[in-house]
Fold this protein.
Amino acid sequence: MVPNPPRRTSPHRTSPQRTISRRSHAAPAAVATALAAALALTGCSGPESASGAAPAEPTPGGTLRFALGAAPAGVDPQQVGSNVSIYVARQLADSLTDQDPETGEIQPWLAESWEVSDDLTRFTFHLRDGVTFSDGSALDADDVRASFDAISGDLGAAAPLAASYLAGYQETEVPDPGTATVVFDEPNAQFLQATSTVSLAILAEETAEVDPAERLQGDVIGSGPFVLESYTQDQGAVVTRREGYDWAPEAAEHQGDAYLERIEFSVVPESGVRAGGLASDQFDAVGDVLPQDVPQVEGSGGEVLTRANPGVPFVLQPNLTRAPLDDVEVRRALLVAIDRQELVDTVLSDAFAPATGILASTTPGYADLSDRLAFDPEEAGRILDDAGWTEGPDGIRVKDGEPLEIEVTFTPVFTGSGPVLELVAQQLRAVGVDLRLRQLTAAEQTTAQDSGDYDFYYYNVTRADADILRTQFSTAQRNLSLREPDDVVDPLLDEQLGEADPATRDAVVAEAQEALLDEGLAIPLFELSQSIGVRGDVHGVTFDASSRLLFHDAWIEQE
Amino acid sequence: MAAYVLRRLGGAVAVLWAAFTVSYLILYLLPSDPVAIMLDQGAGGERVDPARVAELRERYGFDQGPVQQYLTLLGRTLTGDLGTSISSGAPVSGLIADAFPETAKLAGLALALALVAGVGIALLASWTRAAWLRDLLLALPPLGVAVPGFWVGLVLLHLFSFTWFVFPAVGNEGFASLVLPAVTLAVGLAAVVAQVLSQGLREASRAPYVETAFAKGSGRARVLGAHVARNGSLPTVTVLGVLVGNLLGGTVVVETVFSRQGFGRLVENAVTTQDIPVVQGLVVVAAAVFVVTSLLVDLVHPLLDPRVLAGGHGRSGGGAR
């Protein structure tokens, strides 16, 4: 989603596991770091279990004070898109399905089971019995229909992410209160994973009638483990435990009510204040821990939890309508001209991983293409020489009198972006490419995007389904490259959406990833990670498949 | 006196209108529009359907011409309706009503602290006969102006919240949460007050009437308090009017460092999302604060110095300076 802000942290390469990396102290940490680095180098990753002596029994009760790094845009699960908004909104509502963070597999949640028609246009969900909303009313198929009708109707303008998941939506048939059949006019393989996201969470039928703005301010009824007590724009939100919650997804550590009585989210924009507040016991958990704040968090007995965001890692996406990036050889040379490990080692931290493909390694369907991205400046030089880009007087290559100058447009929403791009520019200069940085505000970036005024567009997108490739790179979709329709990439991107068999779909997706890199349609850099600081007495804070936080299993040691 | 007040009031209204119009022009001329920004941020990187953008633009009236939009906004504002935020949908008047008291508390305390400290430093520096103390005191204002507010805030936080927990680091709960941000905000303000006032006192103390006063047998305290201070404080009162306006700007930084709800945070957010109705509402309120303080300054002036009304020292132009 959004150029996800936050995230930078400490050790431990993140793994695609639900198990969260936890840092221990002193010597073991060094060993673990070395191990993590070794894993990173070999391009694989393994699960890491919690360290330290965690008390055996969760104790219910207590208030968790969570400092968010940025202000939520609102609390309506179906409308919000940013990480911090989802941290809050996810607690209020449940989804039809759940996605296993380890395997990417779709599992039951509000729907006990489902069938998908062979042509991927009809999805029939059998709802679990006994689920109620926070107002006491039963959750049934009419609520599913109302939620989806609203998203594809009036709410859609204000909920672009959810609306994109429902593209081609025709209707939801309700043969009986326990059954909802969602019908599309075209095959839609990504829809099943989409039903596990917060964007397609199921809200009460009457919520669908509410004005989008009022919903954003908190007028929503969900079936989640927590209910909203208050929300103040730019300040935060308070959620309280729902009594009688009995429909946590299978992947949850426990069934029944959440352990925490309350969660107080407050917005604390300064990272140093978040870390200091955690160390001085003014917060129990904080978002967006920066590398420089890690020692303070750990020094006070806390831990930093990290997980890489699935989806498209941070990439440089070329605008093909502009020289010199219209030259495919230039793009291919750039793929191997960047030392990604150095980016992580020098300006990020080992909470981050170098990109090893055009999808992040936590994305289902991800293909490891690290061999094509191996740092090889000589090869880059050769490609450029062969393409006619010869070294000019000042070290910058020239062809037909034009210097090899490229501008990258970026926003510093993720704080590490500036330093990362400066290092990339340094690395590219070594092979005779002049990369210039153009930092914009989010507003200016929107304008630049709409007018196609950029050479390289720098961004990332979070989504735990390979269909993100289609929505980003298909010429019928976002298409930041302003590419003309072709007969290789586009057909592959469309084909996966109509492929019912998971193994076949993965194969198509893998082919698409290779095709995209063959054409140099994105220069991957590194994977974004969420990094959350928690005090030593806080346990059970978990990441879902999209690397957003879940608090149902979270608990605080009671005195 | 009535004519003087009327003139000032007329100027105040003109300033309010100008602030509203200029801020509208700037916002309108910016290349992006709030609807696109809002949708882009909510879209999480997905492509936004242009039809959706058009639909929302129409809902907010952005499809109309600039003059039409301006007149609509102005007319609405005149009737007291500030509209709703584009990014959040909350009513602007509600946002401001929630934020303004918090900032007023903060700014009020900061102003009080700054006056006590600034006036104290200036008076003590004028009073003392010890050259070293005077030099020390007069070295403080430049230092106070030079250190950036956010740095002061972070140092205070580190000492009095993280190292020794005396005051909370964040939030708006109770008086304790007000102390550190108010001190942070007061430092720069106190420095300016001390600087301008000590300068004024120094000049006033060279005036012939001081010698006269001493010759009449008045003591140092009476001369400083009744003669020098009264004349020497005129520039300070003038500067104070400007400072109160600047205080609002200072809250952007301080409220962010201390995670406080308030005017500054609202401004920052509204500007980054180009939330036109919110920015317009804030500009009008900020201009009103500025105008009122300027008006007060203008009204206090004749009390301190009756020559102002006599016309010789009357300043032309509106209330803002």
About this structure: Chain B is about 75% helix and 0% strand. Chain B touches chain A through 50 residues (CB under 8 Å). The mean pLDDT of chain B is 83. The CA atoms of residues 17 and 284 of chain B lie 8 Å apart.
